[in-house]
Amino acid sequence: MVQRYGIEKTPEGTWDIIDxxxxxxxxxxxxxxxxxxxxxxxxxxxxxNCRDREQREDT
Length: 59
What we know:
Blueprint: E1 5-9, E2 15-19, E3 24-25, E4 27-28, E5 31-32, H1 38-58
């Protein structure tokens, strides 16, 4: 199964979580998931992909 979310390094050296289907940064509850340290971005992208996978399996 294709993972919906990925991380991209910014020119400043921080990381953004990107929706791989749209190419846009992810926004959760009004907060853009951008400019994060790698550890935080990596953890969040794992959680988002897990949630997305579960939602797609339920349909």
